[in-house]
Amino acid sequence: MSTPVITKTKIAERLIESILTAKLRPGEKLGEQDIADLFQVSRTLVREALMHLQTRGFVEVRSRVGWYVAEPSFEEAQETYAARRVVEPGMLRDAGQPLQTTLKRLRKHIAEERKAIACGDAEARSWLLADFHICLAECLGNRFLTSMMVDLSARTTLISDLYQSKTEAKVFNDDHAAIVDALAEGDNLKAEQLMIAHIDALASRLDESLIGRRGARNRLRSILAPEDSSSAK
To answer: Which residues form the HTH gntR-type domain (predicted)?
Structure first.
């Protein structure tokens, strides 16, 4: 069996998946050599993948320091939700009534969300709640919107880490189920209104004051700071 060819696109996709599962968090360093060793590719290919992600706003390069996962500003966070408020309801408005196979796939996704929430699987929960919106775009058959939703969902995951307190996962899972139920009933207007309410609820949880306590650089300092001998047990 031939070894799969690793391309810059595959590397970029894996990094985005890691953002969606909250394995990679805002401000985390991305060592070119570490990634090259992991994928067994050249640093040049890794650099090309990172440059591609930089154009999409997922990573940033700091002069003489290296590559880091992006830390969206609070203004960018607000703009991201504003964009979602335009894109996602519009997607539902023009959807028509989905096929039964589509509804079955969406309901299976929602059931997987519930299972991850019940099991306390944080990575799966993060992935599935974000991926619902991507899955919805895929099911509605618009590949351009699907690509847009990948970017918006990954960016939202970074934003949530920086500016939002603990996710009300059960509430948002219920929102997803209600949206799918409305589509099943052929009531696209109701689905659109539910999506707007869902996005507004997410946006209302943005709290700029959290950044000071949650910044990844502060987190790294706390992890690597030398132990205070006076407090050592």
So the answer is: 5-72
**Under 8 Å between Cβ of 81 and 195:** no
**Using CA atoms, how far apart are residues 118 and 97, in angstroms rounded to an integer?**
31
22: left (phi over 0), alpha (psi -120 to 50) or beta: left
Domain boundaries, the chain: 8-71, 74-208
Contact 152, 87 (CB under 8 A): yes
Residues 23-66 pLDDT 10s:
999 999 999 999 999 999 999 999 999 999 999 999 999 988 89
> What is the pTM (predicted TM-score) of this model?
0.83
Helix (H) or strand (E) holding 191, with range, is: helix 188-204
Whether pLDDT at 210 is above 90: no
DSSP state for residue 210 in the 8-state scheme:
G
- Among the CATH numbers 2.40.420.20, 1.20.120.530, 1.10.10.10, 2.40.50.140, which is that of 74-208? 1.20.120.530
Quick one: tokens of 1? 């069996």
- Sort 9 into a burial class: Cβ within 10 Å, 0-12 / 13-18 / 19+: exposed
DSSP-assigned beta bridge partners for residue 114: none
Backbone angles phi, psi at 30, to 5 degrees: -115, 95
